[in-house]
């Protein structure tokens, strides 16, 4: 095998492919640094639980200042790279402003996440202590990343929110698009296989279980046959809605009213008025004597 020839062939093909031209950019946002951002974010939002070293109430501010400085440096570099390549001509000053705005939002994100932690503790009798929620629950890890990624997306930072969210997806099995809107006190129980689409809107005090999909019915196309983007494709959940394991709720025109319960395994593609329980047909259960 002539590896030199193969390498030259691959290099020439990459250099001539317009889709791959970004690969030569030095400041391209990268997955490794995005993952480091996520880990630093955990140390800032959950100090002591996810940090090394000893510190107490008196030294917490000093410790957080160091963490915030390192976090801001990585964040600014990644935001500048994202704006350079996907930001439609935004200059470095705009990247600086976006990174500063995101830093200023960290106290609000911390407050929102604290309510999510409490919702998880209040909603799961298996939880023995509030610290167990912050240390162990994949839903909290996914929501921590989502709340920051959603803020980035709202400010207008391209690409980077999706990179960070995909790290959470890989680590937790929970797939939340950074554009999805999620209210206060949200609880994802167990979490594996949960999918929350881009234009999903979730109210306050909602709960979803493993295997839940909040997705799209179909993909609209324009006159040229291309996918139509920017439309409302995913459902809206009101306040205090519970969606049990394995349920699928589809469609941008699907609105689940306040105080509804969607039972396990339900496939739903239409709206439900407030205060209703939605359940599918009872399965035909058979019991056959085991001869062993």
Would you give an account of this structure?
The chain is an alpha/beta fold. The protein has helices at residues 3-15, 31-45, 60-86, 92-104, 106-123, 130-136, 138-155, 160-172; strands spanning 175-176, 181-182, 187-188, 195-196, 201-202, 207-208, 213-215, 236-237, 242-243, 248-250, 255-256, 261-262, 267-268, 277-278. The protein has 2 domains: 25-172, serine acetyltransferase, domain 1 (Orthogonal Bundle), CATH 1.10.3130; 180-292, UDP N-Acetylglucosamine Acyltransferase, domain 1, CATH 2.160.10. The protein is built from 8 helices and 14 strands. It has a 5-stranded parallel beta sheet with strand order 1-4-7-10-13. α5 packs antiparallel against α7 (138-155) and α7 runs antiparallel to α8. The radius of gyration is 22 Å and the shape is globular. The mean pLDDT is 90.
Oligomer: single chain
Number of domains: 2
CATH evolutionary superfamily of the largest domain: serine acetyltransferase, domain 1
| Termini Cα gap | 59 Å
Strand order of the largest sheet: 1-4-7-10-13
CATH architecture of the largest domain: Orthogonal Bundle
Attribute tags:
292 residues; alpha/beta; serine acetyltransferase, domain 1; UDP N-Acetylglucosamine Acyltransferase, domain 1; 2 domains; five-stranded parallel beta sheet; 8 helices; 14 strands; 42% helix; globular
Q: What does this entry show, briefly?
A:
The chain folds into two domains: 25-172, serine acetyltransferase, domain 1; 180-292, Hexapeptide repeat proteins (UDP N-Acetylglucosamine Acyltransferase, domain 1). 42% of the residues lie in helices and 10% in strands.
